[in-house]
Every structure is written in structure tokens, then in C-alpha cells.
Amino acid sequence: MKLAHLTNQQLIAALKASAALDIALCEDAHLRCFSYQTDWQAGVDIASYNNGGGDEIIFIIKGDAILIKGFDHESEVSPHAQEEYRIWPGMYEGAPAALLAILANDAFDMDDVTFCFWRTSNTGAWQQGPVEFLNDEDDGSRWLLSIVTTTPNEFIKYAQNYYQDDFNRISPAQVHQVFAQYA
Predict the structure, then answer these.
(1) Cβ-contact 118, 68 below 8 angstroms
(2) At what angle do helices 8-25 and 172-182 cross, to 10 degrees?
(3) 41-52 burial, b for 16+ CB within 10 Å, e for fewer?
(4) Can you tell me the distance from the alpha carbon of 2 to that of 106, in angstroms, rounded to the nearest whole number?
(5) Model confidence over 107-158: pLDDT tens digits?
(6) What is the pTM (predicted TM-score) of this model?
(7) Rounded Cα distance, 112 and 78, in Å
(8) Where does the source fall among the domains of life (predicted)?
(9) Which residues partner with 46 through β-bridges?
(10) Residue 1: pLDDT above 80?
(11) Which of 46, 76, 126, 158 has its CA 20 to 30 A from that of 142?
(12) In the chain, domain spans
């Protein structure tokens, strides 16, 4: 997993920086990919990535714990791709109940999920339920999590591709400055 080498604090800082830079690049909130909401509920922050094409990642942050719920709309693991609409077996099994309770809020579509990871301390291995892919099904986590920008250079590459000419609204030096501000 791409995020395995980061502490939760480093991941949170990168998510905040990416959201702040997306605001600087795009006036229309509906066209931004990254967002970060501090104190969405008391003691709970929510970060997200949404590409506008049906793919998204939700980060639920509570204390030292983070739950990542992702949805690749083209994945064969999607509930919409099942003969009988259902979440892939084991997807949420073992996830912290306190984080799942937040995810169950009407603000999120808990059923739109193709992968789920969590970590309950600042460092350590990310955990996942006992999900089994018997036919090499792709849950979309590899490519979708690769889009999460965790360094200034990754954000610059993402923004130049996504915003193209509008990337000129900010400079690479500003990107480095914002990432340093949240570090």
C-alpha cells in the first residue's frame, strides 16, 4: 500500500496541504478533487478525494485512528457489479466500531465500497478485513491510493495534469511552502 511508509500525522498533513492547494487552484468546490474538513463532528476530521467520475476515497480521522474507504466504480468488487447487489464479503469485518459508526452517517454512502483499510495508532501496519479475491478481482486500491498526493512533487505532477493551464495560478514554490506549513 502506497501510504504504508507514512505516519498518520504525515498522511493528515499531506491531505490538508492537498486540499488547501486545490482551493487555491479551483474556485468551484464541485470541481476540486481533494477536500479536508476539520471537526466534521466533535473530534472527527474528514478528508476525501473525488475525481468527479464516480471514484472516491473517504478518510475518517478520529484521534490516532484513520479509516480509509475507497470506491472504484469500475471494479468488479463494487456492489453494483455483483449479480446480487452486496458489499464484498469481509470488507468491514474487524474495522473499529467507532469509525464504522461515523461512516454509517447519511453523508457517506457506506455501500459504495471496493476497499477499506484502517490503522488505530499513528504508525504500524494498515489492516483490512478478511477479503478474498478468488479470481484476481481488482478492488481499485492500488491505482486510487496512488493518486493521493503525499509530497509537494506528487501534488505538482497531479495538478499540472488535472488543472493543466490553470496550474499557473500557483507556483511550485507555493506548493512546497504549503506542504511545509502542514508538516
Answers:
(1) yes
(2) 140
(3) eeebbbbbbbee
(4) 29
(5) 999 999 999 999 999 888 999 999 999 899 999 999 999 999 999 999 999 9
(6) 0.95
(7) 7
(8) Bacteria
(9) 37, 60
(10) no
(11) 46
(12) 2-182
